[in-house]
Design brief:
CATH architecture of the largest domain: 2-Layer Sandwich
Mean pLDDT: 91
Strand order of the largest sheet: 1-3-2-9-6-8-7-4
Radius of gyration: 18 Å
Order of helices and strands: EHHEEHHEEEHEEHHE
CATH topology of the largest domain: Alpha-Beta Plaits
Low-confidence stretches: 58-64
Helix content: 25-40%
Largest sheet: 8 strands, antiparallel, barrel
Number of helices: 7
Strand content: 25-35%
Oligomer: single chain
Length: 229
């Protein structure tokens, strides 16, 4: 795998909501990070997309349980993210939204089998499935996923898969943190998604590609009118 950064990059922010309800969180988000001024500031630094997800309301996996929230942003480059979070006002806004949070930057996994497919008009539902784990060699881990993803593509599409993406975590310079791989799938059919992840053939790659048991979760767009772009 090339050591050069693959643009653009993905920013994930997961945390425990400070407001006691999702609706209170929505109002506060739209008044701060999601305000017209907040959106303009983020966009000026290269924030291309901002989406808000909550753990799936029911099912075998809840992505962390009640009280959690996740932001998924696509940025033009990591420097814009650094400049954005260097702003004291942004830091203060974050302390109002989350009691604890984790933010990570991910670059596209070069050589992975990623794709986006058209969505049937009759399928408005969206479910975001995430898997994240430590890896040894990025090239070897990506190759294992690529082979499995190519073989599974037809079954996955039949079951409702819309898109599949793989990312490698960008650790800070000099960091001794382990390498990590992130997989993101978007589905329009919850039953088909559960069928796919219950397929032993699909799950076998998890044991082979990661050096430790990965974490996973299912998320859905947060209820209500959130400021997104």
């Amino acid at each position: 795998m090339s050591t050069s950064i693959q643009w653009p990059v993905l920013l994930t922010v997961q945390g425990d909501m400070l407001p006691s309800t999702l609706e209170e969180m929505r109002v506060l988000h739209n008044q701060t990070a999601g305000s017209p001024q907040g959106i303009a500031a983020a966009r000026s630094l290269g924030d291309l997309s901002h989406m808000v997800y909550a753990p799936m309301s029911a099912g075998p996996s809840t992505g962390g349980g009640a009280g959690k929230l996740m932001f998924l942003d696509v940025w033009a480059d990591p420097q814009g993210i650094m400049d954005f979070f260097a702003n004291e006002q942004v830091v203060q806004q974050g302390t109002k939204l989350f009691s604890a949070r984790e933010a990570n930057i991910w670059m596209n996994a070069e050589g992975s089998y990623s794709y986006h497919l058209p969505v049937p008009r009759s399928r408005p539902d969206r479910y975001l499935a995430m898997v994240r784990g430590e890896i040894g060699s990025p090239d070897e881990a990506i190759a294992k996923f690529r082979a499995a993803d190519i073989n599974a593509q037809r079954d996955a599409r039949r079951r409702g898969l819309i898109s599949h993406q793989m990312f490698v975590k960008m650790n800070p310079p000099g960091s001794d943190a382990p390498l990590e791989l992130l997989g993101l799938d978007v589905w329009h059919d919850r039953d088909g998604m559960n069928e796919h992840y219950g397929d032993a053939k699909h799950n076998s790659v998890m044991r082979e590609a990661f050096t430790a048991a990965p974490t996973s979760g299912i998320w859905e767009p947060a209820a209500g009118e959130w400021s997104e772009w």
